[in-house]
Every structure is written in C-alpha cells, then in structure tokens.
Records
---
Amino acid sequence: MALTYGTDEWEQAYVAEVAERQKAPRPYIAFSPEWIGLYEKAVQEDALYKEAAATWEGSVVLHVLAAPEVGIDEDLYLFMDLWHGDCRSMRLVPKEAGEAGDFVITGSMERWLQVSRKQLDTVKGMMQGKLKLKGDLPTIVRAVKAASRLVDIVADMDSIYPDELTPEQIEELRGWIVPLREKFGV
Amino acid sequence: MVTYLVGALLVALGGIAIVLIIASSKAEVGSGGTGELDVTMAEGVEDNGMAVMLAEMIKTNLTNKPERVKDFNKLKGTVWITAEDADVEMTMDFNKGSLTVRDGKVGKPILAISTDSATLMDLANIDIKFGMPYYFDETGMMVIKKLLKRELKIKGLLTHTIALTYMTKIMSVK
C-alpha cells in the first residue's frame, strides 16, 4: 500500500529512498529520484537562479507524459516547491498533487529531453504548442529569466537520458520504477 | 552612433507619450468602462501555442488590471504577430471591446510585429508607468535596441502609434 503523500512518513521515506539511490555511481537517469535530488541541490546552490527568482512565489510542476518506449509507462509529475529564489524541495509526486501545482507545464518525454539538451527553448516550445502551460500566464512571463535559468541548470547536469537506454536498461528501469510508484503513489 | 539613435528614439517616444497622455485623458470622458471581456478563439487556433498564450495573457491581464479595459475598448484594428524562431504566426482582430484570435495571417494588419519568442516575452514585460509604456528601464532599453538592430520589426510603429500603445498596455504583465 502506498504511503500517503503530504505526511512526514512519506517525506522521510522519499528522502531516504533518494539517499539510498544516490549511492549508485553517477550519472543518473534524467527524472529518476536520484537525478531529481541532484537537480534540487544544483538549483539550491545556484546564485543566478536565486537572483532571477527573487520575487517568485509558487510551485512549478513538470508533467512528463508517459513514454512506454523508454520504460515510463505512466505520466510523471516533478513538483518543484519554489519560493523567493529558494528551492525548498523537488519531488516526484502523485498525479493529484502534481495537477494541483500553481504552474503545470506538460510535454512529452521527447520534448522534455529536447529542453534538457537545450535543443528546445521552453518559451519557444510553449509558443509552438509543444509544451502546454496551466497557471497564471502573466506571472510566469514576468519570471521568464528564472524559468530559463532552471533549464540551463538541467543542461549543465551530467545525465543519462531515457532515450539513450538500451532495451535491457529500459527493462531494468521498469523493474525499479513500478515498486517506486507503488510505494510513493507517484 | 547607436547611443545617439537610442537617445533620439527615447526623446521621440517621450514626446509621443506626452501627446498620448493628453489624448487619453480627453478620450476617457464618456468612454472606458469595464464591460464584458469578449475574446473569441477562431476555429483551428487551438494548436497555435502562441495564440493561445497571448489570448490567455490578455484575458488574465485585463481581469487583474481592470483599469486597462478602457484601452482594450478603444483598440480597433488587426494586429499580426509572428515569432520567427518558432515559425508561428497569429492574427488578433480588435474591435473596440472584442477580440478574435486567429491562426496565421488574416486580413490587413495595422500593426505587424515580427521578432523571436524571447523578444515577445520582453514586449510583454514592458513596464507601464503613468498609464504609458515605459522605455527607460532595462527591458524598455533592450526593446528599443532590438528595434534599432531590426531584431524587432513593427510595421505601423509610426502610423498607428496610439494602437501600438493600447496594444502594449493590454499585453504588458507589469
């Protein structure tokens, strides 16, 4: 039975899971909990982001649509709790929590990987309809520099992208992601 | 040379701003109001991310800043916008209190704006001070420089200045 999101138990178990998974050698697979843990730390330590997001208030959720071809059989929701230049946490969260984020940006795995590789600018992606934004648009437009910085940080990270995985690695990913979803309800 | 041109353009914009403030204050008598916001998305526009975004931005802006509804109510004419890097274009038909948003280029625009996606965001970040677009801060200066470098092209800049001012005000998220 899944732990209840929002409880201390869930939070402690998630943090422990990330710590355990981060014992594996780097780089990590993009959007995995261990990779998200590194991303969280990178944002927390980034002076440029702190400056650009000094007035930012609200959570941002990256909604990655299911991509069975790379082992992601259900949608993923990466919840970023951002406040006045600080990144309070980044977590994979259950769908209901993800959908309730202040700003939800939705795209296919292919689009998010293009963004991560800096092949697709986030604003351009939204204008082309490749990424969809739900939330107060003027607020995010005012913070466009902070959003760009979040993407730049991802691009600077050493990552294994899901579309680079071999068929065996994809099956291995399925092997750990299913129990992870069951445990955390994500 | 560029500094001189920026200076000259700022002085010109300052002059236009003064004229517009006077015109606007006169026009306000008997006009303005905060009637129903009539924004229609034409068929086929739903896949145009830029059109959906800008329409949504205008609606949210006018809801959050009802004092700008009077600018929306005065604007009449067709505006065409293209984000060249994204290869997306849209048309907005303003008709004194109503807006129809269409995919592509439709009709004869009084304002034609061509630039890249990032600059469109800069345009949306132009500050509004004393009821007028403000070009004397970092974002405003950047927009002026892009105009001079032809990275931002606005057809109708001089012939439909008042329409451009209304447009800037209702688009601005500041």
---
Amino acid sequence: MKDQPLFGSEESSDNLGYSARTVLLGKISGPINETVNTHQIPNDSFTTEIDNDTRTATDSIRDSPVVSETSRTPSASSIFEKGETFLGSNLHQLSDSHINKLIRLRFGGNLLQLVKQLLLDLAKKETELIILRRHSFIKEQEFYKLCSEYGNLSSLEVDKILQKSLQKTDNSGVDEVLLELIGGALNEDYLPTKEKQLAMERTKEDKPENIPQRSRKREKRVSSDSKLHHKSNKSTKEGESQQESVGRIRSDSQMSQITAVTAPRATWLKKWLNSTEDLQDVSGHGTPSVLGSFIPNILKPNNETMKPPMELNSIARENSDEEILDSGYSPSDSVIPQANDFSVDKYGFYDSHNIRKVHKNVSENSGDVHTNKANIERGSMTMHNDASKNSSPEAEFGEFNILNKSAAFVGIATTDLTNAKDIKSEKDKSLAKVDINGESLTIHNTSIQKLKQLGELHDLGNMEMEKQWDQYIKSVEGHYKKSNNLFGIRGLNLVDGKDSPLEYYSNNKYYRQLHDLIDKGGIPPKHRGSIWMELTGGDNLRVNGEFERYYQLSIDPNADKLIQSNLNQVDLDLNRTMPSNIFFNNMLQNKPGPLYSKLKRILYAFVLYKPEIGYCQGMNKIVGNLLLGYPNISEEDVFWIFVGLVEEILPRFKTSKLNYFDFQSLQSIKQDQKIICDIYFPKFMPKLHEHLIQNLGVQVEFITINWWLLLFTENFLTLDVWFKIFDNLLLSIVPETKLIALSLAVFKMFESLLFNIDAVDDVYLIMNNLNHNSLSKMNLKYSELIHTSDKFELRIDPKKLNEYRLAYSLEY
Amino acid sequence: MSFPNPVTSVKLVLLGEAAVGKSSLVLRFVSNEFQENKEPTIGAAFLTQKLTIGDRAIKYEIWDTAGQERFASLAPMYYRNAQAALVVYDVTKPASFVKARQWVKELREQASKDITIALVGNKYDLVEDDNEEDLVRKVNVEEGQNLADEEGLLFFETSAKTGYNVKDVFVAIGNKIPEATASGSDTATNQTSGEGRIDLSGGGNFNNATSGCC
C-alpha cells in the first residue's frame, strides 16, 4: 500500500478530470490504452451511427446535455462494454422533439430500447459512483496520513511538500504501483465476473510491457502526455463537462475534500503538463503505462524529507499478526490492515471524519460494495475537523504535560505562527531539563518547520520522560533491593504504612517521586503494563491459569441464567465497543479487529469471576481502553489489571460491602453526585455554582454520573490523556475523593466557557458530550486538570465525606 | 426564517430495553444519520433538536437513557420532569415489548400525570419483507396498538435505519404538547439562535457540516 499514489485520481476541479478518470479506469479495467481510446469512442460511434441527412438534428443533439453526458463518462462505458454509447441521465433537459428524434434515430422508434438503455446507463453511473467513493476513501486515508505526518497543514503547505517531493523523486516504482492498482481492482468484488476475467487476461497480456526500462517508460509517459494535451486543447468543452461531472459525482460526500486536495494536485499536474515540451511525436500505440504516468510519484517519500517523527511511545503494533494468532484468529482472518495504511492514530482510531463519510456511503449504497459495519464512534455531534484527534501534534503533545498550549497549537498550521516563543517558554517550563538551544527555535517562515521542531521537542520530551522513569525505577530497585513488586497497590509498598497518607508524600522520597512522575506525564507505555499491574493490585490477585478457567466456564452452555443474561449483554455490546477503532472493528475488511475477541474473553471471564457483579455497561469501554494501553498487551494481564481496579482501587459503598460496579452501588453513586452538587461544588467554585445551579438550574448529577460510570473514558478526546488520568487514579488513597475532585476539576477547566452560557440545555450539550466536542481539547489540559484536581482532593476530608454520605442515605 | 411564536420546549425521555435502538432513533431525528454499531449509552445522553410544526416551533430536549436493566434505577432522575416519553421496543424481540409494558406502567405511576407517552416499535426495516413462513417479526402491530389503546399512548412502528416514521413520532408528540407549556424560562430568549438548523425533509444535507481535514 505504501506505493500507492497519494493523490491519485478523481479529485480534480480543473480540466484534468479526464486524466483522473483514466487513472481510475485503469485501476478497474487494466489496460490503459483502451481507456484512452474509449473516451473517444462513444462520441465517435454516436456520430457515425447517425445518418448524414439528419446532421442538423445530430448537431443539436450533440450540443445537448445527452451528448455532453456521453463525453463525460468515458470510464463508465469501458467498465461495461467497450465503446458503448452512454446516454446519460439528463434526457429530461431535451426538448420533446429532440427526444423524439433521438428515439427514432438511435432506437428505431422502439421505446423499450430507450428505457433499457437508460437503465443500463443508470447502472453504470452507480457503479462508477461506488468505485469513485471507494477509491477516494483510500486516497483520503493516504492524504490524512500525509497530513498527520506533518501535523496540521494548510493546503498551501501540502502543496509545498508535494512540490518538494516531486522534485526529488524519480519515476521508479510507477509500474509496480500500476500493477498493484490493477491487481487490487481485479480483486474487488464489484466488478462483474466476466469483466474481471477479461481484465485479468488483459493484465497478463500487458505485463511484459509493464516491466520496462527507463527509456521505454519515458516514451509511454510522453505519449500519454501529449494525448492529454491534445485532448484538453481540442475540446475545452469536453474538458469542462468532464470536470463538471467529476465535481458532481463527488459533490454528495466528498466535496469537502476537494478543496483540500485540489491545490496540490493542480500544481503537480500542471507542473507535469508543462514539462512535456521536450516531447517528440508520439507513435501513440497507447501503452499500458499511461496510467503510471498519471500517478505522481510522491508516494515514494524521500526518506529524508518524509521521515516520520520518532515516536518513542507509539503503539505501533508491528507484530499485530502474532497478536492475532494469539487471540485465536485463524491465519486467514489475520490480514488486518497495517495501521499505517489508513488514517488511524497510534491507538488505531480511524479518522472520524472519513469514517463518517464511508459509513454514509455504505449505508446509502445499501451495502453492495462494503457491507461492512462501518461506523463511527460518535457521530451525533458535529466534529468536522477531528483530524487532530489523530496523531497530529496536538494529540501527541498530550504525551507530556505541555498541553497547555494545545489550543493555540491547533491553529498553528494555518495561521502564521508568531507565538513560537510562547511555545518555547511553555516547553522550557515543563521540560526544564531538555536541552533546548535557542538555535533550534529560531522562528522560521514555514509552519512545517515549526511543527517539525515541535515534533523534535516532543520526542526529546518523551525521551527525557522515559529516561526519568528508567532512572527512577532503577533507583527504587536499588533502594528496596528487589526487582518485582516494587510499588504495590497504590504505590504503598514504597512507604512503611505508619504514617498517614499525607505524610507518605512528604516523608517518602520514592513515593513522592512516583506521584510527581505520574503527575508530570503519566506512565510511559513501555512501563504501563507492569506498573498498572502493581498499582491496581492485579499482581496479588492473579492466579495463573484462572483467567482461562473462568473463560472456559463462561462458554459452558449450562451456565446459570443470571450469568447467561450478563453474557448476552456483553454480546450485545461487543460490536458496539469502539467501532471507530481499527483494532476492534476492521472496517475495511468488515470484520472484528484483533482486540475484539480479547475484549470478549476478558468480559466473559469477569462475569464468571464476579457473578454478583456480572457485566455492567461501561466496563467494555474501560477494558477496551486498557487493551489499547500498551503494545503486545496480553489479555490475561488486562483481565487482572481490571480485576485489581474493581477489587482494590475503585470506591466501595455501604461500609465497603458493595463493589463499585455492583448493581446496588448505583444508588450510592447517585448519592455521591448529589453530594458533589450540594456540598463540594459550592465549596470549591461558588461563583460557577451560583451561575449553573442556582441561576440556570443545571442538575450536575446528570452530567457527572456518566463520567463516573465510565471512569471518565468519555471525557477526553485523546486516549493519552485518559491514560494519565487513569494512572493518577491508581495512586489515590481514597478513590472517591479523587473521583469527586476530578469531576469538579473538569468543571473548573470549563469555567470561563460555562460562565458565558445562559441556557441549561447548552450546558448539558457541552458537558455531556465532552469528547464529541472540540471544545474539550482546548480546555482539558492534563497538567492543569491534575493540578486542579490535586488541589481539590486535598480539601476533601474523607471522614467528612462519609458523614455526608450517611446523612444523605438517611434522607433518601 | 424566524419563529414568530415563542418556542415550545419539550423535555422528552427515551426508555426501553438495551439495544432496541433508542439512541439510533434520536440520532436519526437529530442529525438524520444512522450508525450500525452505536455505542451503548451509559447513564444518559442529552441532545436537542428543533422542529417547526405548522406555525409552531418546538424544541425537543431529549434525554436518551441507558437500556441495561441495572441502570433502570437511574431512569426516574430523567423522567421526573419530562413532558413526553418514548417507550421503545424492538419488533423482533418479544422481551423488549414486555419491558416496554413495564415502562409504561412505571411512567403512569411515577411520572407527571400529563406526560405524553409514545409507544414505538423500532427496527421496522427488519420485518418489512417478512413472509409467512419466516417471520422475523415477533411483536405484532396489533399487540402494540392494543397496548397503546389501553393506555392512551401514541403508537408508531419506526425504523431508525431507514428513517421510516421517525420524524412522525416526534411531530405527533409535538402536536400533543399544548402551547401553554411554551417555556417562559431563561431559554426563551435564546431560542432563535438555532433557527433553520434542521431540514429533515431535505435529507443528506448534513454533509454541509463536514469540511477539510486540516
């Protein structure tokens, strides 16, 4: 896939629609010489079919929409039968007399023929549309990939990059791309079988020609060039109509992309067109490589320019195949797309923007092409430019706590950066130890360079963080003279337990360091697995083999009814868990991703492990997130981490008898929300409380209860932030105070925004849909959030809280 | 386009068994979209939509509750002050109809007396092509209609997937809500901000919301 064109084909709004079509067409029917020719055939055949004595009529028909339709859709005709006339669908725009003439001349007065022709044309159109959509999805994915490699780029910047890479690349690899394209097309199900075979044969025939020497290729390229030139000069009208047609076809869903893509394409194509001046006359036996020459060679990124930023803690699942085998996938099922084939972020979330469209196409095409259960995780809110949810700099910046400037960051690419200095100072603040020399921060003219610098800084920061962790772990190991079970539940192995929680912090250097490191940037992915295991107490609870035993028990058909109903609920929710993540839902192949079955087994086993708790909606999301936590995570580990979380970390109710996810805990959780609303909210944020609760009548529990039940998984646009929140939660001595503090800290982050809202439902819309909402990425800055919640937490006295709880439970 | 009359606010709650399509109905109504695998709702989701019926502008404030049985105890929180409720079941799942019956009963007992309830049999698309031998439909239209008649409910069979009847449910509810409940509260002044936002009849125009990637 790597060698696919970045901006292959159809998005074009200049008079290159023709070439675009040809590329597409080549993809479908293989030999390109034909596609070039067929373009003319319909027109010609049409005219020759018509008697000379009806020339006038013909001419008027030629000017009519019907004919222009013909010229517009060369590819469709060749998809079906070579050289067949394409009537098009806007016959209705003709006058009656024209239509009559048309019927008489073309169909000998047989109306049935006309209807058949129209239906066929319609079918062609549909096919074409489907192909275009499919094609453009893949192209867009690649486009996004490019964007995310460079961060948020404006089209101007994309243009520059493309130009640059065009200059630097040679033409090698085009034929492989061509073959790949054709091969891909042949494997696509929507080609009629007959056509498929035909195309297959053609490809075989053409193969020798496809593996040429340089000179040959050049010639071919030349030929196509001149043809294109010829074409566009000869009939601008045709060109226009093609262009129009392309635009029209795409307008339903891809319009928005055109603007983004057109500019760079226009440039490389123009450039390329202009470079044809030295061409000699072409013998023009249209060679198959015509297609190749249409493909810009930017897909072979120059290693120097396109080198992706080093991603220390990227979750590149390079050995995903192993994983799949692990998880019981049959090898034939195991072909999951490499994450980098598509626009997914490092955790495997699809670009929501794209998926939205693909999904739409799918549902509108009644699933003929992709019957996949394509989906987006959350589509109800408008969230246009969530590209930044991907591994764009902003998301990555979440990696350590310099999110402070993230809001500005979103705008960096498009506006000329004058605040690089701000960023520098932010960086300096949070990353004092990273050596940032002034030179590397010189303000350059292009944002790209700035983004690159920021990327470097980010990498440096990550490296530094990881180094600090390594050092820290080493020093702990040295001090306690052991190498496992260093930290223990909530990190309490580090302290001797005689002091009160507050004193742990001040008295124990290692405990304090652990806190500080987690506050600073969370646990790096490399250490996540083992440290989570310790902090949750999963280590202590773990009994080897038990996970497997529980799972086996769960698939026993004679299981008890209650268990059965819980498992049924799990089944209902499995497909609905992270449908926008490639590891859970492999959209393009219409099957579950590798983590899907891991999730299933963990949830199943948990139902058996704790039948009295069973399965509670929300667990799917939490376990799902944990599964994405670090590379090669084993499901057994995640199971025990989750068990530890439930058994040891999360609050208990009714004098510790009730587990957090226990059915009866809901009442207590509800009560805690009331307490937040009545007591802590006014205490910590009296003004906001007055505005929201007293003036607007917002019921805070409607908002916070969702956060609690989902452990804040829905609050943050990026998983990175959630992981840090989770890390932080694991250290809490009194988890309920942590949850209360966190809930209020989220409100605090939105304080200024909320003050400006005067409608109660707007408050719900924002606060209940935090990660549908781009606002949240501007406002939820990890370091600030943690700082605020730490501050709040200190002000919540657990003893007092218990008194309130008692009072409230009596009241209700 | 502007609303000459004050906007009537309708607080509406959706109740029903898990995975009957509550969130999908709302999504169809609010953004005319459908997602095959809608993530389960936890707690409750909140969405709003405005609709003009005749010369009335109605704003629906929708609380879409979680369907899992264990969350049932949270429901009173949401239906307590609701003016309308959609009790949803899945026409292919008899158990969901039983649950719907329970919800109607609970609403009659616990919710405000003048609450407008619509009984909605969703997933109509699955039974559209039912033939005699192979019945996908497990809850007959008559059963639904009978329950609706007994309890004085609005009744619809819908498909969130195809959009069939979805808007109709909300229109019917809107028609049942008396003008008098037009909110005189804080929200009244802000109502026009979202004018012209919806055009359900247009279909497919929500593409406008999308834009370039970066």
---
Amino acid sequence: MTMTDNFAIELTDIDKRFGAVHANNKVCLQVKRGNIHGIVGENGAGKSTLMSILYGFYQADAGQIDVLGQAYTFTDSHQAIAAGIGMVHQHFMLVENFTVLENVILGSEGGALLAHGLAAARKELTRLGDEYGLKVDLDATIDTLSVGLQQRVEILKALYKGAKILILDEPTGVLTPQETDELFRIFGALKQQGVTIMLITHKLREIMSITDQVSVMRAGQMVAHRDTQATSREELAELMVGRKVLLQVNKKPGNGRAPLLKVKRLSVSDNQGIERLKDVSFELRAGEVLGVAGVSGNGQTELLEALSGIVPMTSGTIEVLGFKMDAKHPLTPDRLRELGLAHVPEDRHRMGLITDFSASESALLGYHTDPKINSGIWLSNRKVEANCQALMQSFDVRPADPHLKSANFSGGNQQKLILAREMERNPEVLLIGQPTRGVDIGAIEFIHQRIIDMRDAGKAVLLVSVELDEIMSVSDRIIVLCDGEISGRIDAADADERTLGMMMANALDPIDPLQTMDDQHASSGQASSQETQA
Amino acid sequence: MSDVFLTVLLTLDATIRVSSPLILAAMAGLFAERSGVVDIGLEGKMLASAFAAASVAAVVGSPWAGLGVAIIVSCGLAMLHGFATITHRGDQIVSGMAINILVGGLTIILGLAWFHQGGLTPALNNESRFLSITLPYAEQLAYIPVLGPIYKELISGHNILVYAAFAVVPMVWWVVFRTRFGLRLRAVGENPTAVDTAGLSVIKLRYKALLIGGVLCGVAGAYIATAHNAQFTRDMTAGQGYIALAALIFGKWRPLTVMLACLLFGFLDALAVRLQGVVIPGIGEIPVQFIEATPYLLTVILLAGFIGRAIPPKASGMAYVKER
C-alpha cells in the first residue's frame, strides 16, 4: 500500500477565481481515510468554494483532485457522487413536499418507473437506518419533519448513493445542542463503518470535540493543518483571523434598573392567521442585556418586528419608555425611533440596508428626516457623506468609502455600518437581531464589546441570537422562545448549553427549579440509555 | 324522450367538444409549470399551430399532415420560450406574452400573404379535417332509454382528437406521479438546487417539459382549426390559452382536477352559447359576457383563498441560477 492509498481525499493546488475574487489560491488538502477532518475559516475564507469544487458543483480553474487514490476531473455533481462523495449542504437540498423516500431516490431512481426503485430504496434505507442508527419515517413529507430529522434525511441520501466520504457544511448551525449531540453520535457510528467525514464549521468547540485533524483556511489559502489533539481553540482562532483573538467577552456584571420596555401578553399572528407569538411577557431594564435564545423560526423574528412596530400585534400591550401601544393603538416604526428605540434587524440584506444603495445612503435609512441632514426638501449630499464618514470611523468600517455600493462590503462591515447607524444615535432601547450572523471572529469581538459598552452606559439591549455562545457570554438574563412562547427564563450566570437546549426544545418546566433539575437528569439519563441501545 | 333531457345532453356534448383543447393546453401548462417555467404562451402556441394545421391541411389535403406541422411549429415556439427563459434566464411572463403577440400578428400576415383571403385560410373540405367517429352500435343502442342517448350523443360522435385529449389525462397523471421523469419534473419545479446537487441537469429537464407541452399545444391548435372548425380565422383561440392557465390553477396543478376544471369552464362556455338570447323568467336575459367571465372570476376567488388554497410549484416563474 502506497502513501496515497491512505488518503480519502487529496487536493493539490486547487485554484478558483470568481471575477476579481480569488476564492481558492493553490489550496492543498489531505484527508486520511476513516477520519473526521475539520475545516475552519472565517466567512469568505473559501471553505465552501473548495467543498463545492470537490463535489463537482463548481469546476476549479486549476489543480488536481484525487479521491480514494484515483485522480478525477469532476464536471458535475453526478461524477462526484459516483466517485463516492456525498455532501450535506448548509441549506438542505430537499424537496419539501416530497416524502423522505422520494427525496432519497431523486437522481438514482433505479429505472424509468418508480415503483421498483421505491421498493428497493425502502429496503436499503431500513438497513442503513439500522446500521447507523439513522431512524426516520420514510413516508413522512419533508415539511413535517424537524430540522434535525431533515438533516438525517440528507445524510441518508448521501449514504444511499454510496458515499464513502461525507462532507457536511455547517451542520450544527440550525440544531439544538441535543440534536447536535445526536448528530455527533451518528458521526461516531459512520466513522466506525469506515466513512470519512469532512466537517466545515466556524464553531471551534465542535472542532475540538469531534475531529481527528483540522485544517485552517484564511483568505482563500490553506494556512495550517493540525492534529486536533495538538492544538487549541485559541490557536485555531488566531490562525483563522491572523491575529490574537479574545474568545471570551470582557464584562462586569450588569445592574438592571428601571424597566424601559414592558411587554405584556403579546401575541402576533402572521398574514395566514397562524399565531407566531403567544402570550409573551417580559421586562427589559436599563443597564442590562436580555438575551432571547431559541432555534431559528420560533417567534424571534416576529418579536423583533412587533417591538419595532413593523408588524401589527394581535393582542397584548407594549410599553416603550413610558409610551403604550396595543393592537388598536399601534406606534409606527418612525415614532418608536423618535422615542429612542433602535432596531438592528436580523436579516441585513432584507431589512437592514439596501444593497444597491451607496454606503452613505444605507447609513441614512430611517433617519433621513433628521433636520441636521434634511432641509425639508433637499438632502444635503455633503452632510449625508459626512454622517456616513463619521459612522464608519467610529465603528471601523472598511473600506471607509461612503460612495461604495452597500453590496460591495463584506458581511461584517455591512453589519458594523448598520450597528453604527442605530447605536450612534444613542437610543435608550436597542433591539438587535443576530448581530454576528455571517460576521468574522475579529468583528464579533468588536460588536460584542460595543453592546456591552451600551449596556454599561445605562441603555437597555434586547439581543436575539441563535448562537448560544453569544447569548450566554453577552446577556445578563436570558429568555428562551419555543413555538412562539417563552419556554424558559434564566440568569446568564446560571445558564449552560444543556439547560438552554432543553428549554429550546421546551422539555423543561420553567416554573419550578427543582422540577427542572429532575427533568434534566431524567432526560439526559434517557439520552444515554438510547445511546447504549444504539 | 323529454326535450329537457336532450337539451342537457346536447349541452354536455358541446361541453366535451369545447373542453378538449382546454384539456390539452392545460396539460401542456402542467408540464411547464411543474418544471418551474410559467407558460403564459399557451395561447400563442395554440394559435400558431391552429394556423399551421389549417394551412397545411388546406394545401396538402391531409389533416394528419396538418397535425404534424402544427406540433412542429408549437414545439419550435416552446423551444424559443425555453431559449429565452431557461438558457438566458429571461422573464417568463415577458417571453410568453411576446410569443402571444408575435403569433397574433404573424398568423394574419402570413395568412394574407399566402392565401389572400383577408387573413383566413381556405375553408377545408371533409377530407382535410378530423371528422366525427361513430362508435360501434351507436345507432342500434340509441333506443335503450337514458343510456342509449348518452352513448350516442355524448360518448360517440366525436373526432379522434377529443378522445385523444381525454386519454392524455390519465397518461399525464401516470407520467408525473409514477415515473422517474415525473419525479424529477416535480422536483425541479419545487427545488431546482436539490435537483442540481443530485447530479441532474435542471436545464435539460425544463426543456423536456416544454417540449412535451409543445406537442400537446400543437394537438390543441390542430383540433381548433381542423376538427372543431374547418379553417383558420384570426385570433380564433380567443383566450382559450388563458382559460387553460386558469384551469391549471383551479385544478391545483393535478391532472385529474385540472381536467375537471377544464370541463367546468367548457360547460360554462357551452351554457353561454345555449343561453344566448334566452330570457329566463324572473331574471331576464343573462348577459353572455357574464358567463364567459365566470372562469376568470372563479380563478380570482380561488387565488384569494376562498376555495381552499392554490399553491403553485415553489420554483415556478424563477430562472435557475447556481448561487455563489
């Protein structure tokens, strides 16, 4: 057996450009057979491009791909699949109104008629399910399955197509901690059967706990390969960013004072009449950060939009800085902004800025009536630009060019521009959704510090995030949303990932702390007994 | 036999004749939209193939030759639509409308240039048309009460394209829901990225769907000009392509319900003809326009959510671009 036979994947000098962007610059990578290999890097470092090339979704401009000791040139995904590569994308590639079975056989139906292929697939999937502990109802349609189960379908799909090498792109981003544990258990079973796993993630904790080796990408280049045992989170973070990074947020304990925002029995229905937020009550005090945790899509968006006056509420009251609003007497987003409430929306491309506008115009959105800039009829271009220049300076937005189109800034810099716009007005209440989604580690550090600074200045901050690390390190108190209801309240000091995870799945009784403890033990006991069975 | 019974039978008989091209066109639209391409050009394709069928049948003297050329012309337009919207990712509505407008003018100009009859094609004699087929024993069985007349008037006595239209429906159902092609077709209209990552070509699948639609529209057009009528007249499809599209939505993109919607709309059309000038006691004369507008009204009501919900294939109307 030669050396190359030990490698499941060998990439040599892979090069890929998208216009002016050099997405992959002479990237080399070797992945040993049967290992779990992590690939980390900031957004835009080129990880996803590299994996898409390996999967035949894009073609490399130059370079060589060897899979299981054999050289390939993939021109489409079909060839990569045939070579034994399977991919679980970050956004699942599932047809929502198809059954699990139909989704799995799509592309390898085994004949022009479905009946035979479906029957054969059913048998094979049952076998795979038993072998790897990947149980899922084959006749359920995808839209009735939880995210964790949908991911399982993706893995089954890859295995069914004969994958010996499984690539997973940010697989845990949408999972609760419990679902993540379950996924890692599946990884273990796959590894035992000789499957090679490539895990792309920006969560260093996961890299440390599950991988055998890890490779680090930065700015389109592969900058380091390490055995996981011989490295640390700190070292990896430094390699990713290119400088020392503080992973922990520096903060003194907060001291919440008078409530600035009171929410009482707030309910919100969407335009199809489905209740998205049910009977939510909480207070947000001056000088504290209140974290809102939960799996994405459990009412966080509706909460932010109701509080900022964007969507109407169906019942309940909201009191902002002494001003009341309810379903019959709403306040407009404009009026709320005037009162001192600022909102950094979750989705910066949809609501935060207008990607076709220049930075100076995007930096003005919502404040265009400010008499400092607006003389009644005319906007002063000079003042608009000066305003943007000042914001860029205080939040270190790069490049500091007010004329540049908003779309041409990186995600982190777009986010900093929006944060600057909302925070520099010195609002009393700041609503902030997913402040660090798609933002680089270096910028995350900066954004977190700014949020803490606001809190220390006696402002009230509501922080909605799906990142539990962020929630736990920045917040003083935490509420958890599940299915539109508050399923848990806890002080950040007492919170850990497991407890929050249980709350996110609404598996805890939030009222009785004793009960809480028992439930937790009972469920974790159950989980471990399941593991033994598997 | 009572006159009322016969009147009902004849109205239903007309319903079947009027519905046939709707069914064919709606099935064409079903393939296109299930694959993610909105096909508002059904109207134009039918009109073009009606013209082609009538012209060729008039010159050659064979309805089958007319049918063949109609299918070729319709497929050509379908490929044009595909080239604009699939290959070049153009707007599907704009492309479809462009085809409708183009055909509306072109058929008249070509008709004038070729036949010098004010945009009409020469009237077809019986040899160049699809004629009614009398099914076996229709005359003998006509004397059996109720069932006899139903067999004779309703089921027997249509041309072959009518039977083809109704035979196509279960075939479409079978193809869409029971074959590999159907699975891929449904998938590409819902989530083309999933199809692409499964190693299948989104572009090829969509072209195939349009091609099938082209064939069906060709048959529909030939039916209108060489079976239902005996020559081409300007704008003779008269919005049937849009009605078929409405039936597609009304039938929620499922072959059997779409057929029922076509029959309902066809019935309304037949009724409008029958009620023309008839004064109904207590109500007076019903404006024909009202009945003719009903299919559109029903579709709007459906879309507004009053009769269940019509959920189109998720990716329909969108060109597929590999995202970066």
